[in-house]
């Protein structure tokens, strides 16, 4: 018996080594016939025997769930140093039938930029392509997709203290996934999403052509501003429009528990959060915690943390709060005035003496196990609903919710202007959020199970037909495509949730630019079934 296993193991082993060898050699040869000098190839192509393979793979893993010995690993990692390397990589991957995963900052919540559930795959890692050029005269910037949003904020701040860009609160997210998937942060109510402030882009298409906005045409340019880049090509860069920020902004963080009437205040928050002055963004974090009275642990309660960014001074913020949301009881002591870049650091939980230079550090302090889900609300949750929600959250124990207010600029932008469809009428988006540190399937099942249970619980209160979801909060629970003959039907399940009425236009663009579905992943835009294609 033992001997038999050994023989089988040997056979499998030698088979897989020779298969990888062959793939690797053919790939390298193909790059070389596509004008990549042989001297450059070892600097950009790594197979599993390379000592750099594991460090490169792990460098942009941002969820410990996908950093285990059983996580499927790529056969090859490509780390292009220039645009032509990307072009040749696409041509050669297509030619050899490699399944290509594109990774920029690696923050995908389900890890689909560096893990595959559908057999062998190769990673195209964009982290070396991260140049940023800022022009204050044009109020624009050109940013390669391997850059992180924190680096972009830093380069803008270096040139101007009164310009910014509406993008993520977590400064380590990558431009490639973040901008192609929507991208939002605390400037959302004033200036909309990242994708509402993009004026040009460069893409490498399935034929390896390098296309700018003019060359790719308005349909593809539309698709890569919220439809997710990975279905359409490799986005190399975006040209963005900078937005004005005042020299002084104000932040606060005010916490209330159930004993402080959090229920009434949260209820009130729902009726002002999307209607208040668009210069003000008040995020709400809800968490089950153990109550402490005089240092003694008591029962469980819910903590509601209200975190604000206001584009103006503390005095005007206090006047706005006093007028629209006095229930929160914000005082002058709660308000901190600072520059916009300091508020970027504040929101990303750096302490108040941290220099903006920290934004050039690409590596996180620690990487946790995570699960996220999302929902949208167009009607407020009634008081009794909130009370039952608190009970449920306390019962589950760990999963928290983040309410991100909409309204303002988000109400003004047509839902068809970009693939991102969640515009007028949304009060807020919910993020279901749980992080944990314990390894193993038991903990993962427990905490992921909590997010699913809370998602089920909130069904009566959230959007319906479809139950909407945010692409950048990737959630494979809402459907996956296995890329078989049913891929359109499968893709429609999550596609309608992420894109609503824009899904069909994305399918048309996809079918036109990548008819053989080379650029695919677990939740990519499917191609149109032949039966639905219009005959020419
Ligand atoms: C800690 C944390 C905080 C976050 N905070 C926010 C936030 O404040 N606001 C917000 O909107 N989102 C936030 N997100 C979600 C984040 O915006 C998305 O996960 C986003 O896709 C990350 O981009 P990335 O380049 O880092 O990810 P990656 O994992 O590299 O890529 C994500 C997806 O985009 C594709 N892709 C990446 N680069 C390219 C490219 N160059 N061309 C084509 N396709 C590409 C990938 O193949 C994959 O499908 C957060 C995520 C995390 C983990
Ligand atoms: C891995 O790459 C090296 C060159 O860096 C090459 O010599 C070797 O054959 C490759 N091995 C496999 C298994 O592909
Ligand atoms: C992934 O796991 C390895 C140990 O297997 C660890 O050294 C590394 O730091 C982890 N990566 C991240 C991003 O945390
Ligand atoms: C950005 O700046 C670099 C270095 O100055 C330059 O080589 C490049 O052409 C610039 N790119 C754009 C699009 O302006
Ligand atoms: C909570 O609300 C009740 C009734 O409105 C009020 O009497 C009480 O003072 C409030 N408690 C706090 C801590 O604000
Ligand atoms: C708040 O508004 C009330 C009137 O509604 C006013 O009397 C009070 O002075 C205001 N307080 C502040 C701090 O603006
Ligand atoms: C900075 O943080 C310290 C410690 O938390 C605090 O004592 C101090 O008041 C803060 N300063 C400002 C300006 O917020
Ligand atoms: C949104 O844009 C579409 C397409 O251009 C148009 O038909 C529709 O009337 C617009 N809707 C609104 C509310 O302006």
Please summarize what this structure is.
The chain folds into four domains: 2-125, Uridine Diphospho-n-acetylenolpyruvylglucosamine Reductase, domain 2 (2-Layer Sandwich); 132-244, Uridine Diphospho-n-acetylenolpyruvylglucosamine Reductase, domain 3 (2-Layer Sandwich), CATH 3.30.465; 249-323 and 368-461, Vanillyl-alcohol Oxidase, Chain A, domain 3; 479-535, no CATH class.
Question: What is the secondary structure topology, with strand pairs?
Answer:
Elements: H1 2-33, H2 41-44, E1 45-47, H3 53-59, E2 76-78, H4 83-96, E3 100-103, E4 122-125, E5 132-135, E6 140-144, H5 149-159, E7 163-164, H6 175-180, H7 188-191, E8 198-204, E9 210-212, H8 213-216, H9 218-223, E10 234-241, E11 243-244, E12 249-257, H10 262-272, E13 280-293, E14 296-310, H11 314-324, E15 336-338, H12 340-347, E16 369-377, H13 383-396, E17 400-405, H14 409-412, E18 428-436, H15 441-457, H16 487-499, H17 503-513
Helix pairs in contact: 1-4, 13-15
Bound molecules: flavin-adenine dinucleotide and 2-acetamido-2-deoxy-beta-D-glucopyranose (7 copies).
Keywords: Alkaloid metabolism, Disulfide bond, FAD, Flavoprotein, Glycoprotein, Signal
Protein name: FAD-binding PCMH-type domain-containing protein
Pathway: Alkaloid biosynthesis
């Amino acid at each position: 018996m033992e001997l038999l296993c050994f023989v089988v193991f040997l056979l499998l082993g030698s088979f897989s080594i020779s298969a990888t060898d062959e793939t690797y050699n053919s790939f390298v040869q193909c790059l070389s016939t596509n004008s990549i000098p042989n001297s450059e190839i070892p600097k950009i192509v790594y197979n599993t025997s390379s000592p750099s393979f594991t460090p490169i793979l792990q460098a942009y893993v941002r969820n410990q769930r996908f950093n285990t010995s059983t996580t499927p690993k790529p056969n090859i990692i490509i780390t292009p140093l220039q645009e032509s390397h990307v072009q040749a990589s696409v041509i050669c991957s297509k030619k050899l039938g490699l399944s290509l995963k594109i990774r920029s900052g690696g923050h995908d919540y389900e890890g689909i930029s560096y893990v595959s559930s559908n057999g062998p795959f190769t990673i195209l890692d964009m982290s070396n392509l991260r140049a940023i050029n800022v022009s204050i005269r044009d109020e624009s910037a050109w940013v390669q997709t391997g850059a992180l949003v924190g680096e972009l904020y830093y380069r803008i701040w270096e040139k101007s203290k009164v310009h910014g860009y509406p993008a993520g609160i977590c400064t380590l997210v990558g431009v490639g996934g973040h901008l192609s998937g929507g991208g939002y942060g605390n400037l959302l109510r004033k200036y909309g999403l990242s994708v509402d402030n993009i004026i040009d882009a460069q893409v490498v298409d399935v034929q390896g052509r390098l296309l700018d906005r003019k060359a790719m045409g308005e349909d593809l340019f539309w698709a890569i501003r919220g439809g997710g880049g990975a279905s359409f090509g490799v986005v190399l860069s975006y040209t963005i429009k900078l937005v004005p920020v005042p020299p002084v902004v104000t932040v606060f963080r005010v916490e209330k528990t159930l004993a402080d009437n959090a229920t009434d205040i949260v209820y009130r928050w729902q009726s002002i959060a999307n209607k208040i002055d668009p210069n003000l963004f008040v995020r709400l974090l809800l968490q089950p915690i153990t109550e402490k009275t005089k240092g003694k642990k008591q029962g469980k309660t819910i903590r509601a943390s209200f975190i604000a960014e206001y584009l103006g001074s503390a005095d005007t913020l206090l006047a706005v709060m006093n007028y629209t949301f006095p229930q929160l009881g914000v005082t002058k002591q709660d308000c901190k005035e600072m520059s916009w870049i300091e508020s970027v650091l504040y929101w990303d939980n750096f302490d108040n003496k941290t220099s903006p230079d920290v934004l050039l550090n690409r590596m996180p302090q620690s990487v946790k196990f995570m699960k996220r889900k999302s929902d949208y609300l167009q009607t407020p949750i009634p008081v009794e609903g909130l009370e039952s929600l608190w009970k449920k959250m306390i019962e589950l124990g760990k999963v928290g919710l983040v309410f991100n207010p909409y309204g303002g600029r988000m109400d003004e932008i047509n839902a068809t202007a970009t693939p991102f469809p969640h515009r007028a009428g949304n009060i807020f988006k919910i993020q279901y959020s749980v992080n944990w540190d314990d390894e193993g399937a038991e903990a993962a099942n427990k905490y992921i199970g909590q997010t699913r249970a809370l998602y089920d619980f909130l069904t009566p209160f959230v959007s319906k037909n479809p139950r909407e979801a945010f692409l950048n909060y990737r959630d494979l629970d809402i459907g996956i495509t296995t890329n078989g003959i049913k891929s359109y039907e499968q893709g429609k399940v999550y596609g309608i949730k992420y894109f609503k009425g824009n899904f069909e236009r994305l399918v048309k663009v996809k079918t036109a630019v990548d008819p053989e579905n080379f650029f695919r992943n677990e939740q990519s835009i499917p191609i149109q079934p032949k039966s639905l294609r219009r005959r020419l």
